[in-house]
Amino acid sequence: MRLIPLNRVPDGATLGKDVASGRADGMPLLRRGTTLTPKFVGALLKAGIHAVYIDDEETRGIDPATVLSDETRSAATAAVSRAFETASGALAAGQPLSAEAIGELEAVAARMAEEIAEINDFALALGDLSAADGYTLQHSVDVAALGLLVGQRLFKYRGYTDYMGRQSWQRIDQRLTRLGLGLLLHDIGKLAVPQEILNKPGKLDPAEWEIMKTHPVAGTELLRSDLISPLIKVVVRSHHERWEGGGYPDDKSEGEIHELARIAAVADVYDAVTSERVYAPARPPHVGVRIIREGRGTAFDAEVVDIFSQIVAPFPAGNPIELNDGRSGVVSEVVEGQIDRPIVRVLGDGAPYELDLGEHPDVLITGWEDMDPTGDRIPARA
Asked: What's this model's pTM, rounded to 2 decimal places?
């Protein structure tokens, strides 16, 4: 299986993975196994999809592992959709989000945390290829999945910081559930932002930007019930704070930013960069990884970035890759300990064969290890 731009999909190719719609019922735009005719390709392009996974003989056996099962992803998407619908009514009535909506999301967050805790793999396929108009729901789920993945590894490594500032390993599962719930709700305050601002194709003007920056506070206001843990609220309020300051809404820095919000900041930016949005195309994983790594110690907590860098590959399995000696192919496997040096299935050079970049230090990945400038920056509208 390989990821391929839609404009290069051969007529009659077989779709390797579902293309998500972002709908609450989980119904995909196209199901895995569909034959990609020009009609289907045109419909996907119209929906804002620019790349798909296809199955073919050359990449047989390459199967990108996902963070969440299809069933858990579908349940999470449905729960987030219902919570956002409930929140819209609550916002109009000046009321907080209902306990019922929070309870359903908490159960989903616990399910996600439990499933991710059982994962032994790393360098997983982190996001779902989905239509741009389904961004809000899919982004909420994908950010929660990535944040939980990072949180699991971080807390296992050194515990978490409790309210007294002490390192603790007690009830980590509860801590992760609250992190997951905060991540599922991190953008709920965008319900208070006009759609014409949220979906504006170009750059926001200063007045629009000030409105956009109100969404963390608006989200916290929807969660103002005393029954909701402060840990959940701090993720929603502070996921746009930046390590060296300059973030919003409170311009906090370093240790002033809650540990869970520091995890959220990394997960939010990475998924925003690599997702299809109405106002920006999806960038490949290596661009998202580079942005996070280059923000280490400036935009993001260095410790969180270090954990992220151990488990999020710039070139996951199934992704196309170009080498500096003119060869190209598809990543077939990412080996722990050499996350930047995957095994590549070389194509177009006779019969396909595997090339372990860990054993060939002279072969570089074009646009990554040769450090060509990308001009990529942390997106303002994550």
From this structure: 0.92
